[in-house]
Amino acid sequence: MKETIDSIYEMYFPHIYRFLLSLCHDHYTAEDLVQETFFRAHLYVENYEGESIKSWLFTVAHHAFIDYERKRNRTVIKEENFFSNFFHRGRSTEDQMIVSEEIQEIINLLEHLPEQQKLAVLLHDFNELSYQEAAGVMNVSLANFKVLLFRGRQAIRKKKGVNTHDG
Prior knowledge:
Layout: H1 5-24, H2 27-44, H3 53-71, H4 82-87, H5 93-110, H6 115-126, H7 131-138, H8 142-160
Helix pairs in contact: 1-2, 1-3, 1-5, 2-3, 3-7, 6-7, 6-8, 7-8
């Protein structure tokens, strides 16, 4: 593994944070899950020999979220702005507002999707994992993943009021 955990953290933190925030809808929980994800990654990164570190991290994050859902233990981070400052570092106030609005729009669009469809859309469309990588993260077949993604996109179009039957 040629990348250090620090460089992996710097590169993928915003992506993992947005992914987890869109799953749990809670800033504090997302912070906790990001830390759990990178803690687990730190423990096993030296032994990782797969092709894509990004898809592996999303798999680790998804498993951390599933574990959280099973336990339902909440950890409140005392310093509220720590992660938002890291995420917005070097951006103007206007850019920060745009990113925050975009995240909120994504959360609102995905809010009512079934969990598997939401996960498919998040992994492929928002986090740019390939079909194969995303299917691996979700532990479903490629064909099943494509169906979930199609149905999720279709539901989002319907929610946004876009007519998908224009001929």
